[in-house]
Amino acid sequence: MNDEDVPMEDEIIASTEINNGPTDYAPEFVIPTDVFANPNMAHLPKNARLPLLESPLIARPTSHYADSRSDMMDITRATPHRHSSPHVRIPPKATSQALPIATLKTGLVYDPRMRFHAELPNETTIDDIHPEDPRRIHSIFEEIREAGLVRGPESSETEDHNDYCWRIGIRAAEKHEILLVHTLEHYEFVSSLPHMTLEELSHQGQLRDSIYFNHSTYDCARLAAGGAIEACKAVVQGSVRNAIAIIRPPGHHAESDSPSGFCIFNNVPIAARVCQDAYPQTCRKVLILDWDVHHGNGIQHAFYDDPNVLYISLHVFRGGNFYPNLPDGDLTYCGEGAGIGKNVNIPWEEHGMGDAEYLYAFQEVVMPIANNGRANALLWNMTFEHNVIATPDFMERKPLLVILHDPPSFQDHPDPVTGRRELHNTWLTDVTKSYIDWAIENDFSVIDVNVPKFVAVESEEVGSNLGFTKADDQKVRADRTREIANYLWTNYIEPNNATQVFFMGIGDAYLGLVDLLSRNETTTEETSKLELIIGFVAESAISSVKRINTDDDIGLWYHQHTKIFVKQSHYAFNRNSTKKLRKKLGDLQQSNWDTLDDMLVGHRLEVQDLLLEKKNEYIEDTENSTPDEDQQAALNGGFRSPPLGLDTQAIKARHANGLRGLPPVGVFSSPVPRSPRSPMGFGKPF
């Protein structure tokens, strides 16, 4: 029986592979250019002789435009030939009827055949590999496989597959789908590539902007566009919760009438148009978020006057002097006609933007616009809005005091006759404000973090119990403190110029700081700026520092770098106990008071003297050191953080173990220093 396409229906996903079967993982590495140097592919491993290439690989001179019959491309299934009919897979249903979307699987599109779009053999050397390397999608897939999210060759046949992504079958995009975005002339040019000689392919690439062609470019580009279509369809149909499409050639630089910038067909706009046509009721409005170092000029131009497509792009702009070197990427280009306001550019002034910059852009620009766009795909975000306040000089070369505390308490004077409490007789007792005022007067920078006792969510149940809402428990709030402290440390504190860092944890926030030290090795390294942790503990438990990699010195370091004030009646000072307080608990000091406010007032002078003592010690040491020592400390990493988004332990584990089966891959990122910078680099402010 001849292979044929299976139409997509509401409950069925057509596939070229058996889900979680032996072909779910990528075959062993194949050098794509070997295909062109040896057309019969006899030297390649059996599982690498992929059935994509229907066009003969031997170059022959023909017209640059293909016969119309080439529009229909048969794609043989990657399953064994003993199957006499296409394999149809039904995706797993949601595991909870109460959460029909949230409990669906994540879909994944990947096909190693897309790696056959590669540079011609005579145009590449081992020292000069094109940045759009076929191995990129393989490395991405391997990362996901290494994480245990898709089946790999080492997977057991009997192991539980519940954590696996659902493999969505890929197909080639049809001509009529591609023409929803591209002109007929553009399509006919790309479809003619398999019939050109190697010299003609090389010449056509040189005529265009940052692109190469080979005999497989047309087929791979159709697979990439078709993969994007099937990923989007699976989500719109409700077959999967969300989907990832690992596809190439990329698309966002491709214009409607020409390939450009590594891109052949513009995959995302094609998928958007197909879904809008196929599902007009459920997919009428579309939001496209383009997260790339380059501006997606092709996507912007495809929808510039479309009121139903909201396009948001975050990219390096440099005043139009960064690829694609067009003024269109500036924030003043907002759409035209019916699409005015539907094109949003966030142009970065320079390279090196990290988590801090992107989170700022998302919170201040992307999310508000996306929420107001009323796209059929709704986004939801929960943040710490207005709970972090900093002095303007917190990145400068001076000591930095970071205070993480519970919300201020309040006091009141009830009516002496009726006992009623009135608002005008109630006030907040924010004792931490006196610490902040003192720190600023003594030339400290300050970051003030309020860790709420309850994070508001939209729910019918909240407040239904007689108006009472229970606060989050200690563990939740400690985790929340650790997350935000780690974020501040990684993005704002360690990469910048503070000479010393002092953490102060008040109440449950103290537990989060201990957890931060336990999990983040950079906080306690020899070159760390962290000088002292001050804690105020009343109702919270006293936590010991624990290092996952069993650092034997962490307890001693913690005891030498802490001052923990504990309320007088705390059980840690139980007189009947014969246990000695361990150093891993820190330098504990029993207070004469029992409430946080009283402790903060009573120990204020002691804390201030301690901070000034540490500051003066640093000044004396600096005056006695030579500039060369400071410079060497900076070169050794004393004033810089590792690349953002990477956990220190994960980095060490990866260097130790490597990625199994991953072929040599070029460097795709550079560990540049990060610092918080506004995305409002050019044009008028939002």
Account of the protein in words:
- It is an enzyme of class 3 (hydrolase).
- Residues 130-374 form the Histone deacetylase domain.
- Residues 382-617 form the Arb2-like domain.
- With 686 residues, this protein is α/β, with parallel strands linked by helices.
- It has three domains: 13-282, Histone deacetylase domain (Arginase, Chain A, 3-Layer(aba) Sandwich), CATH 3.40.800.20; 285-383 and 642-686, Histone deacetylase domain (Arginase, Chain A), CATH 3.40.800.20; 388-411 and 425-455 and 471-635, Rossmann fold, CATH 3.40.50.
- The chain has 17 helices and 17 strands.
- Mean pLDDT is 74; it is low at 1-51, 53-86, 377-386, 456-466 and 633-686.
Search tags:
single chain; 686 residues; alpha/beta; Arginase, Chain A; Rossmann fold; 3 domains; seven-stranded mixed beta sheet; three-stranded parallel beta sheet; 17 strands; 12% strand; elongated; disordered N terminus; disordered C terminus
Summary?
Residues 382-617 form the Arb2-like domain. By secondary structure, the protein is an alpha/beta fold. It has helices at residues 33-37, 135-146, 175-178, 184-191, 198-207, 217-236, 267-278, 297-302, 355-373, 432-441, 474-493, 509-519, 554-560, 596-602, 604-624, 627-635, 648-657, and strands at residues 13-14, 88-89, 106-110, 166-167, 242-246, 286-291, 309-316, 343-348, 388-390, 400-405, 409-412, 426-429, 445-450, 501-506, 530-537, 562-566, 588-590.
